[in-house]
Write a structure and sequence with these properties.
It is a single chain. This protein is α/β, with parallel strands linked by helices and 307 residues long. It has 2 domains: 3-79, no CATH class; 104-306. It contains 4 helices and 17 strands. Helix 2 packs antiparallel against helix 3.
């Protein structure tokens, strides 16, 4: 028996039992919580690639299976609906007891022309996150929803500006979640985007911007990335589970894709496969602008196309 079949067979049995108990109202199960276990898929993939005997792989798989099932069955964050509250008075920035309020937050950082490169680090745990337009400021962030508050911080080091958008003690109820975020960026600096994602929809149309790095790490997300040819080398890195990923790149840029995936579909029609998990466009060696894509994913739909 293959160790991967053993693992997935045990997971399906455990999930089936949880479904039955949930439908019989014998157990109140929070299905959003399961996505927190997606890194176990990467661990399993690593086990299958280890240069060890199959018998040892089966033992390791059984251990992983036992850990995963234990987390599914015993972890209270999965078995009980997590009720979140956050204490934030949107009107006067004082903390008061309010639950499920819907409000707005707006942040911006003025643009200093001495800034050549900027880095945005953001928590996109849940909701919709969209880059909508350019701005004369360095960045504008606008949120409408009931998750928060977001905390904005900025620091400058010589010609580099770092922006951090993180959630402070964020508490919410998943079934009533609203979180719509719109971001505007200044087109002059070189941008690095680092996003920690959960169950979110991420739409990064950054074709009008000079993008050096785009790094997304998360669970069950829908990710759309469109880049331009305004910077000579762009690195895109995505680690996810149970996601739909679409990346759009310029036709006149060379592109190399490196993937480590499990139970995932790939659509790389305009790429040549060099070896397992490695793909390139035909013009890769002939052009100066290059895009490097690294994807680690499980149970994911991957699509890379050119325009």
């Amino acid at each position: 028996m293959k160790n991967s079949n053993l693992f997935w067979g045990g997971i399906l049995v455990a999930l089936g039992v949880l479904f039955i108990l949930n439908n019989l109202n014998l157990l109140d199960f929070n299905w959003w919580g399961i996505f927190r276990l997606w890194p176990m898929l990467l661990v399993l993939l690593g086990v299958t690639l280890l240069p060890i005997k199959n018998s040892i792989k089966i033992v390791l798989t059984l251990i992983l299976l036992a850990i995963t099932i234990t987390l599914l069955i015993t972890n209270t964050s999965f078995l009980h609906p997590r009720t979140y509250h956050f204490n934030w008075d949107w009107s006067d920035n004082n903390f008061t007891e309010r639950s499920y309020d819907r409000g707005d937050q707006y942040f911006y950082e003025p643009y200093d022309k001495s800034v050549d490169e900027a880095t945005l680090k953001m928590e996109a745990i849940a909701g919709k996150f969209v880059v909508v337009d350019k701005t004369s400021k360095l960045i504008e962030f606008e949120q409408d929803g009931n998750i928060g508050p977001y905390v904005f911080s900025s620091r400058k080091n010589n010609n580099h500006q770092s922006i951090d958008l993180s959630l402070k003690d964020a508490r919410f109820r998943t079934r009533q979640l609203i979180n719509d975020v719109e971001i505007k960026l200044n087109p002059d600096p070189i941008w690095n985007l680092y996003i920690e994602s959960g169950a979110a929809k991420i739409d990064l149309d950054v074709a009008k911007f000079k993008t050096k790095n785009i790094d997304i790490e998360g669970g069950a997300s829908s990710v759309y990335i469109k880049i331009g040819n305004l910077f000579s080398k762009t690195d895109i890195s995505i680690a996810s589970g149970a996601s739909a990923i679409t990346i759009v790149i310029p036709e006149d840029s060379g592109c190399e894709i490196s993937t480590e995936t499990i139970f995932s579909s790939k659509n790389f029609k305009e790429f040549t496969r060099l070896e397992r998990g490695l793909y390139q466009t035909e013009n890769f060696d002939d052009v100066s602008n290059k895009v490097f894509i690294n994807i680690e994913a499980a149970v994911t739909s991957l699509r890379v196309r050119r325009y």
